[in-house]
Amino acid sequence: MKAVEANFDGLVGPTHNYSGLSYGNIASAKNSAKASNPKQAAKQGLAKMKSLADLGLVQGIIAPQERPDLVTLRRLGFSGSEQYIIQQAAKHSPKLLASCYSASSMWTANAATVSPSADTSDKRVHFTPANLVNQFHRSIEHVTTGKILKAMFPSEQHFHHHDALPTVNHFGDEGAANHTRFCREYGDAGVEFFVHGRYAFDSRFTQPQKYPARQTFEACEALARLHQLDEQGVVIAQQNPAVIDQGVFHNDVIAVGNRNTLFCHEQAYVDQAKVYAELRQKMGDDFRIIEVPTSSVSINNAISSYLFNSQLLSLPNGETVLVLPQECEENSQVKHYVEQLVNSQHIDKVMIFDLKQSMANGGGPACLRLRVVLNEQELQAVNPDVLMTDTKFTILNQWVDKHYRDRLVESDLADPNLLVESRTALDELTQILNLGSIYNFQQ
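Given the sequence above, the corresponding structure tokens read:
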């Protein structure tokens, strides 16, 4: 059956701020305590979604989380009125309050791992929300993520929703940021490529020394089992610990893939030649690998420009397009390489987007999207109100203008009005996207 790869982008939430919460993410640390612009961030994301929809791609929208997360603050001992809880948290534990205000769910590459029905034995699309246990501010997302995904993909006939893996470091799971699917046509059975940073139960293997390896081998194996994947359609690789220690905190900072093409840096994986050989053995000899040498793009330039945190897309007209952040244009080494890439490889054209609000917190084009392969029947079963249209684009921009601030610093998180503003916005959004009562404050 004919299928398409749909991209569902995270809508940036109204509490988007730079609190430097993500250890190992260099951009997040570098911009800590700077003023953010939530309104601009949301509009930059919406502009990318609309541009891709205009190319004929299926483009969807994933709602942000409820923030601040008062349920978590109450679990951690704060009590009294909501206003009092915010005041006390701001006074006694401002970083905890910032964590519970984080808008990091905008990076929906970390929302879940998704396997299409062509790969699964029950012939349903499988979703497993990522537990994100390595970072506290993200570990509080997965329950609401599951509710949002069920509201977007409600049909039990077509979609199989799992709970997150056990919320311990042994099964640390960062979602699609460490998962890529290869295929010839989207409706064909494919090869699912899982990447991890360490083995939780076996200390013989190398692991990074400076920054944490957020994804475990054991989590990758568990996801493959949960999603009922044939082992002949699975490849599991270890990320190079040396590049994790340089700031490559997810595979999507060092590699991106689409259909039968892998675009990656030469330092991406442990025993890279063996990884290539297994991918070619399971995908066939026509599997294409575009390997970027260090002499062309250094690891530092790959990280600062987010060359690999890009979207590699197949357009309806057959062209392959590489979606890059503006930072790739501003880095002379990367810009030179991209110009050569388009002239000599299997990339037909490049699209550049201004995503500076997201980039300043460490997330590029690939971070903002969750890929979901859907056949015709499954696409019909998706909640239609979460799909991007001209009308939806106009409505959402008006919604952002109505509810979002254009400046936010960490000290603003102590303002109880921000809670009211955020809830008012999200309550209206659930009606725009027809999600039902997915947030705790709506219960």
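The CA atoms of residues 66 and 439 lie 6 Å apart. Try to locate this feature in the token string yourself.
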